[in-house]
Each structure stands twice: as structure tokens, then as C-alpha cells.
Amino acid sequence: MSLVAARPAGSRVEYVGGTIAQIPAGCQGYAQTLDERFFVFYSRGASWRVPYDNINLLEYGQNVNRRVAAAVLISPLLILSKARRHFLTVGYTDEDGKQQALVFKVDKSDIRLMLATLEARTGRRVEFQDEEARKAGRG
Q1: Dihedrals φ, ψ of 119, to 5°?
Q2: Contacts of 53 (CB under 8 A, 6+ apart)
């Protein structure tokens, strides 16, 4: 019998950037939508929890939106890459009433389920950057 380390439940993601200085860009982890009250990002033993009630923006695209990119420092290599990427932006208000943003690169196989679950938990519709994103996100 062999022991295998348990993988956290959720979707494997990479934190691309956002307004939270405590999470370094490029940080690998898992995004979870299993909790009924919180969207959770786990990475290296730490976690970041956002109440679904505080989420005011869900955006999906294959490029990071310009309005979010202004608040995010993105690697030039990511922008120049030709591979199709799947980006989820979660906008929310923090406890102080300030607008915050988390931008994640999500695996292609996980994006549809994550979008559907976030819509159900937040009561918000996902905003798609363009028709190409709508097709990829809705199937």
C-alpha cells in the first residue's frame, strides 16, 4: 500500500495579479467554489477567502481585460504568448468597502464548471470579453 498526498479539491489556477499585494503574481494554487459562503484560493498552505455576497464582477476572457490590466502587473511573456489562455477576473468589495480584483489563469478543463458555479453562488452573470470567450465559457 502506498500513501499519496491528497490534492486539495478545486481547480488548479495561477494568480496572474490583482490588487492584493499579499499574493505574488505567478502564484500557483487551487480555486475552490465548494464552500457555500466563500470563494477560496489556496496556495502553499495559505488561503484567501472572498464572501460570495461581496463579489460584484465575474469576467471571463482569453485576454486580461484592459480595465483590470491597469491595476495588474502582468509579465510581458504572458501577453506575447500565442497559446490560448483562460482568465477569470473576480471583482469584489473588501471589508473596508474598497474595490479589489483577483485575476486567475484557469485550466481549460476547469473553466466551464467554475463559471457556472460562481454564477450560481453569487447570483451574478459572467461578463464575457467577446464572442470567442462566450463560446469557450458556455460550450
Answers
A1: -60, -45
A2: 122
